[in-house]
Please model this.
Amino acid sequence: MGYFDQFENEDVRALVEEFPLAWVCGGPVDAMEASLLPLIGEYDADGRLVALIGHLRRANPLYRALGEDGRATILFKGPDAYVSPEHAGLRNWGPTWNYAQVKIGADIVFDDALTEMSLNVLVAAMETGRPAPWDSAELGDRYHTMLKHIIGFRATVTRLSGVFKLGQDERDEILASILGSLPDAETVAWMRRFNRHRIP
Model:
């Protein structure tokens, strides 16, 4: 394994929770569709991602495509930033791009019984911690009208791979220079996460 494909279950969970809007791609090869959808993870006792809960509009072409063939590829993109030789503090250093990504193969099953639950878990995840968390009951009768136009689903994970290119291959002094000068706070935080054993 290389520097960038070594990660733990908690790294996947952190990326999915911090960047929940993912590309969901699938359907028959001759009619493949893709759509950005917010997804919430389900984890086993070891913290391994086992499924993703989501919903989409019934009018979304992806609904029909995945109804014909439920195999999907789900792409989560985490933080990313261009890293210049200026950040490394060396003019003879080649520029690069740091990023984090997780690619998931999944089998998607749509289920009316999941629709309201998928909304509840998404709202809970997004509203928790806000001074005045919003609740779907505030929509009144409109809520049940809206429910008719969407469908919930569970995407069972069949395979998972990730690339976390976050400076693990840099010499200590170059890593320190990048961490001290890169203006992208999200990428810096993830670089620190993946190099924490090297940072004093």
Q: What stands out?
A: The first strand starts at residue 21 and ends at 26. The beta strands are 21-26, 33-38, 40-43, 49-57, 71-83, 96-111, 150-165.
